[in-house]
Design goal:
The complex is a heterodimer of chains A (about 350) and B (about 325).
Chain A lengths: L19 H5 L17 E2 L19 H14 L4 E3 L4 H18 L4 E6 L2 E6 L4 E6 L10 H6 L5 E8 L2 E8 L8 H4 L4 H4 L11 H10 L7 E10 L10 H4 L11 H4 E12 L6 E11 H4 L3 H13 L2 H6 L6 H9 L16
Antiparallel strand pairs in A: 1-8, 2-7, 3-4, 4-5, 6-7, 6-10, 8-9, 9-10
Helix pairs in contact in A: 11-13
Chain B lengths: L2 E11 L4 E7 L13 E9 L2 E8 L10 E6 L7 H8 L5 E5 L2 E2 L9 E7 L4 H13 L3 E7 L7 H4 L6 E5 L8 H5 L6 E6 L2 H13 L7 E3 L11 E5 L5 E4 L5 H7 L18 E11 L7 H6 L2 E2 L5 E9 L2
Parallel strand pairs in B: 8-9, 8-11, 9-10, 11-12, 13-17
Antiparallel strand pairs in B: 1-2, 1-6, 2-5, 3-4, 3-6, 3-7, 13-14, 15-16, 15-17
The chains are: A alpha+beta (about 350), B alpha/beta (about 325).
Bound molecules: FE2/S2 (inorganic) cluster (FES).
The site of FE2/S2 (inorganic) cluster (FES) has 14 residues of chain B, from loops.
């Protein structure tokens, strides 16, 4: 195996860390020095070699540790993975999409051999070697969605299309930015987006829904979203707010550099063939301010974005209480020089 | 839109009016599987232009070895079906879109009632294979005027839950009886002439079916009409739309780039903003809301037409 996987934690002692290569490939979400909510959708996959946009499902140095963290979260709260009965077919579609993509994109890590519906899947980083019958759930230890998403980084929502709307009828959600599958399951597109300030009035969601309904087979898209998290915690769920909410109060000017993280979601959309459901993987990437300021362009830009952001958005993104400390800290890295367009670091 | 270049591997005459076509990858590679009720758009060269018609897939949705469609010859239509009947032969290469679905089954249903009239049987042929595979209870009703016209009979399996109603034989479809007495959570799907769709919706409403359990295939072929002209705002170019041509086809012929998927007014892809309108848009789509229609600031070029002195599009 060519890839090295970190031995690290996303809770307790928080030993999560980014290697210099992981920092350089971090999906920094700001392509200019200011931020406003937008739909910012691009085709997926596609991007510079080595970037997290290159493949359908990015696998990186955090893979094995993230899967271990998911297992802990699921053991504590099995409702983080739910699938209404009519979504099993979508689960198989998702399993196929992920297995086929990973085996093609990372042949040294994964392999898939198919003879009709007799499938043989090998996941080397996780030490899994499994033969099963495609579309026969009795041959897997979990339902198809749960089986494959216990082996794939990122959260997953499977959206059922009916009555001109999308319904979140299945999901695996253990690394979410403060939303709850148990609360949102069975809701439609507008209901689960209700907490986003100002976006509904702006008509952004009407447009986004129309766009999503029109996504066809073989056309995949992505967008980036972001928020801020104290400590490298994947599970910032409402259910566990009592565990991570108070940590927001631990930020000081001395520790902000290594305790404050930018949390970026790489959201992708896939139309699934047999079920006609939409798969909505939400992959989370974390980088501390210390990590980010190693790239001078990002340091300058992040300072300007956070300094000038609408206070309502700072509140929604969860960092209003620490905004002054963060902005003060970042100001020392901003000499006022112009930044180049686009999200990638300068060489 | 993703396209596939396929080989025509079979053409079969089902009735004097209906032909079945089978397409396969020329190298034998597997094709994308799909969901019951999906359609493909077929490209047909016609002089200096390309005609595109959408047809429901009638083959097994989980079988990647080929796609099959059934085409009814419409001599008064825009020429697409005539082309399929007269010019397409085994061994030809044909360009089709990947499958898209605007008429899917609601897999939450306790039971499915499928009602097809005439060539409207086609989307059900893939759906019933999906339902058989999922072991979901369903019944299918197929209505046609005469046995000679009922191309669907050759394509339907014989089973107790598949009912054929031939009106010439005094065996007309009785919607009241068909829609009555189903368990709660049954969904009904209709595809066929507008009249049949309306009659099913009407009868279902009378029997107290929730509207969310009543589905119909929304897309139809673009209707012909009077010729008209549009202006392209960015270039000032004028494009003439002929009587037997859709606005989308005329724009494509004039080399104006425009997105599309269903070409039947249902998917929303071709939605175009109107920058000036002096006259009346004939909205034939199923996409825009009543308010949007009345405002006349948007048009769906795949279906809609115009009468008046000036229509300018944001293209
Ligand atoms: S192409 Fe689908 S609505 Fe026009």
């Amino acid at each position: 195996m060519t890839m090295q996987f970190n031995d690290e934690t996303f809770r307790g002692d928080y030993t999560y860390r980014n290697s210099p290569e992981a920092i350089r490939r971090f999906p920094f979400p700001f392509d200019r020095d200011s931020y406003a909510y937008s739909v910012n959708i691009e085709q997926h996959p596609g991007g510079p070699k080595g970037s997290p946009f290159e493949h359908m499902f990015d696998v990186d140095e955090h893979y094995v540790a993230e899967m271990r963290d998911r297992e802990i979260t699921l053991a504590e709260d099995p409702l983080r993975c739910q699938s209404l009965p009519h979504m099993e077919l979508a689960g198989w579609d998702l399993l196929e999409l992920i297995m086929v993509s990973k085996a093609r994109d990372y042949p040294d890590l994964f392999s898939l051999t198919r003879a009709g519906n007799d499938w043989h899947w090998i996941n080397r980083p996780m030490g899994i070697d499994k033969r099963f019958i495609f579309l026969d759930a009795a041959t897997l230890p979990y339902g198809p969605m749960e089986y494959i998403t216990r082996q794939t980084q990122g959260d997953f929502a499977l959206l059922h299309e009916r009555d001109g709307n999308l319904w979140m009828d299945a999901g695996m959600v253990t690394s979410q930015a403060d939303w709850s599958l148990d609360f949102d399951v069975g809701m439609n597109f507008f209901e689960w987006h209700a907490p986003v300030p100002k976006a509904r009035q702006m008509g952004v969601f009407d447009k986004a829904l129309k766009f999503l309904l029109a996504v066809g087979q073989g056309q995949h898209y992505r967008r980036l979203n972001w928020t801020m998290t104290v400590n490298p915690r994947l599970d910032t769920s409402p259910e566990n707010y009592h565990k991570w909410g108070p940590e927001k109060r631990t930020i000081t000017p001395e520790n902000v550099g290594h305790k404050q993280f930018l949390r970026v979601e790489l959201q992708t959309f896939f139309r699934l063939p047999r079920s006609h459901a939409l798969a909505f993987p939400i992959r989370c990437y974390l980088a501390s301010l210390d990590d980010l300021v190693t790239q001078p362009k990002w340091a300058r830009r992040l300072h300007r974005v956070l300094r000038d952001i609408d206070p309502d958005l700072a509140d929604y993104k969860g960092f209003a209480v620490n905004r002054d400390v963060i902005v003060n800290h970042l100001s020392q890295f901003d000499d006022g020089a112009p930044t180049s367009p686009g999200i990638f670091p300068e060489d | 839109m993703s396209k596939l270049a396929l080989k025509v591997t079979a053409v079969e005459e089902l009735t004097p009016l209906v032909k079945r076509f089978r397409f396969e990858d020329p190298t034998g590679a597997p094709l994308p599987v799909f969901s019951g009720g999906a359609h493909i758009t077929v490209e047909m060269p016609d002089g200096d232009t390309i005609r595109r018609n959408s047809y429901s897939l009638i083959s097994d949705p989980y079988d990647p070895s080929g796609y099959e469609i059934a085409v009814r010859r419409e001599d008064t239509g825009r020429g697409g079906s005539r082309h399929m009947h007269t010019a397409v032969a085994e061994g030809d290469t044909i360009t089709v879109s990947v499958p898209a679905n605007l008429f899917q089954l609601d897999l939450r249903a306790r039971k499915h009632v499928l009602i097809g009239g005439g060539i409207g049987i086609t989307p059900f042929l893939s759906q019933l294979r999906q339902l058989d595979r999922a072991q979901q209870p369903y019944e299918l009703h197929y209505a046609a005027r005469s046995r000679a016209e009922a191309a669907g009979i050759a394509l339907l399996p014989q089973a107790a839950h598949i009912h054929v109603h031939i009106s010439e034989e005094g065996n007309r479809m009785d919607l009241g009886a068909i829609l009555d007495g189903h368990p709660l959570g049954t969904h009904v799907y209709t595809c066929g002439p507008e009249g049949l769709i309306a009659a099913v919706a009407d009868q279902a409403a009378r029997l107290g079916w929730p509207t969310s359990a009543v589905h119909s295939e929304a897309f139809t072929a673009p209707p012909p009409g009077e010729p008209f002209e549009v202006t392209i705002a960015s270039t000032g170019q004028t494009v003439a739309v002929k009587a037997d041509q859709s606005l989308l086809e005329a724009l494509e012929q004039a080399g104006v780039e425009i997105d599309y998927s269903c070409r039947g007014g249902a998917c929303g892809r071709c939605e175009t903003a109107v920058t000036a309108c002096d006259g009346q848009i004939e909205h034939n789509d199923h996409w825009l809301s009543a308010d949007e229609r009345a405002a006349q600031t948007k048009i769906m070029p795949c279906m809609s037409r115009f009468t008046g002195t000036r229509l300018e599009l944001d293209l």
